[in-house]
Design brief:
By secondary structure, the chain is mainly beta. The protein is built from three helices and twelve strands. The chain has one domain: M1 Pyruvate Kinase, Domain 3 (Beta Barrel), CATH 2.40.33.20. The chain has a seven-stranded mixed barrel with strand order 1-7-6-10-9-8-12. The model has no long low-confidence stretch (mean pLDDT 92).
């Protein structure tokens, strides 16, 4: 029996970008029309690589800076959830460039809460494996504040549970604007711990 089940849920890629660099003051994307992905992610993107230094998200497992497997190659956010964040920040929209996002997808409800280990598969077989929900970032708050003064400070609260997911490349290929991604979810029962 397969451990992953193909669902009827399909999202469309409505925006793609890459973070060419990152400093302590910003994390801003550049738009793309196509995204060739290898096992290391998008090769010229700041988050690419087979491994990465551990960060604050995994401090209970690893000291900061420890080399670990990179499961944060791609950041995927939902167009519908971005609209909710914009509403809560009293903005007409949230520009994906401000988020350091890789992909904006439209059409999968409650996207930030899809199960870890789900797959998003493109038309050519390109497959992204979801690591986990992405937490709101203070760098994004600073970027929004610079772009729309008076609106950035509330980002972390507005984006809680709406910041999308991080993922890594399970099967290389190329994603294009307008491509659809089909959701596949694990078939195991919810943990009872």
């Amino acid at each position: 029996m397969p451990m992953l089940e193909q669902t009827a849920h399909v999202g469309q890629i409505v925006w793609m970008g890459r973070v060419p660099h990152r400093d302590r003051q910003e994390i801003v994307s550049e738009p793309l029309d196509r995204m060739p992905l290898s096992f290391a992610g998008y090769e010229t993107e700041f988050h690419a690589g087979l491994t990465r230094p551990s960060c604050s998200r995994v401090l209970t497992q690893h000291p900061r800076g420890t080399e670990i497997r990179n499961v944060r190659q791609v950041s995927i956010v939902s167009a519908e959830e971005l609209d909710l964040i914009a509403r809560d920040l009293d903005l007409p929209q949230i520009d994906p460039l401000w988020l350091g996002a890789s992909i904006v997808i439209k059409g999968i409800a409650d996207f930030s809460h899809i199960p870890p280990s789900s797959r998003l598969q493109g038309p050519d077989g390109t497959t992204l494996t979801v690591d986990m929900q992405n937490a709101p970032c203070t760098l994004v708050s600073k970027t929004i504040e610079e772009q729309r003064p008076g609106h950035g400070k509330g980002f972390k609260a507005a984006a809680k549970g709406r910041r999308g997911v991080t993922a890594w490349v399970e099967r290389p290929g190329t994603l294009h604007m307008g491509d659809t991604l089909r959701l596949h979810v694990p078939t195991q029962r919810i943990w009872q711990g």
